[in-house]
Amino acid sequence: MTTLNPALARVLKRLHYPLDVILTCVRWYVAYPLSLRHLEEMMAERGISVGHSIVHRWAIKVLPVLEKAFRCQKRAVGRSWRMDETYIKVRGQWKYLYRAVDKEGNTVDFLLRAHRDKAAARRYFEKSIDQNGEPETVTIDKSGANLAALDALNAERETPIKIRQNKYLNNVIEQDHRAIKRRTRPMLGFKNFRCARILLGGIELMHMIAKGQMEDNGVGYTRAEQLYSLAA
């Protein structure tokens, strides 16, 4: 890479390791079900001494920059959304990861919230609409909070969003949750809400890249190359 993302260049000034080592460790951490100890051992086998706490620090510093860059290159999603929330443990307590996919299974957006209520659901919808435009239809389960949030949004719109409540139509998002939970399981919970938000953003980032949601200008980049290109 000849020119680094300026935000990433500022972060790297304090990290004192080669860029390829940092990006490789961060990618492996969010792409595969590996613990920090696994990554420490894998680097040692390659003759690179990297403590597990260092890898964690790299991830916290680097992932927000890569996620922001990705959002500028994310493909547009469809206007029929399937929305649901899943449980994530933070410091021994359950928090709520709100997520949606379109009917093709592409990730619309995600948001970690401390509570599962109307306010949290509304904040999720507002963020998703701001980032992806308004949907024509949103399918949810029987959650009263999600329905109340959509009703409140529709009350402010000339053209309301069509709401469908059907658990079986939401199988696609429930299946998609599994890819995220599979990756978080080896992490054994998160230390705090901020770390959880950043690392989940990185996991979602790699999940979207794996689903082909990054504009690549027709060049057949691998998943690794797509992530690394966000650093330029």
Q: Explain this structure to me?
A:
Helix 2 (19-31) crosses helix 8, helix 3 packs across helix 4 and helix 4 (52-71) crosses helix 8 (193-210). The chain folds into two domains: 6-73 and 214-229, no CATH class; 80-184, Ribonuclease H-like superfamily/Ribonuclease H (Nucleotidyltransferase, domain 5, 2-Layer Sandwich), CATH 3.30.420.10. The protein has nine helices and five strands; from the N terminus they run H-H-H-H-E-E-E-H-E-H-E-H-H-H. It has 232 residues and is of the alpha/beta class. The mean pLDDT is 93. Strand 1 (80-90) and strand 2 form a beta hairpin.
Amino- and carboxy-terminal Cα gap: 6 Å
**Percent of residues in beta strands:** 15-25%
The name of the CATH superfamily of the largest domain reads Ribonuclease H-like superfamily/Ribonuclease H
CATH class designation of the largest domain: Alpha Beta
Instruction: Count the E strands.
Output: 5
Helix proportion range: 40-55%
CATH topology call of the largest domain: Nucleotidyltransferase, domain 5
> Widest sheet: strand order?
3-2-1-4-5
Shape verdict: globular
Major sheet: size, sense and barrel closure? 5 strands, mixed
Mean pLDDT: 93
Low-confidence stretches: none
Order of helices and strands: HHHHEEEHEHEHHH
Helical/strand content category: alpha/beta
Rg estimate, integer Å: 18 Å
Number of domains: 2
CATH architecture assignment name of the largest domain: 2-Layer Sandwich
Keywords: DNA recombination, DNA-binding, Transposition
InterPro entries: DDE_dom, IS_Transposase, RNaseH-like_sf, Transpos_IS6
Protein name: IS6 family transposase
Domain DDE: 79-213
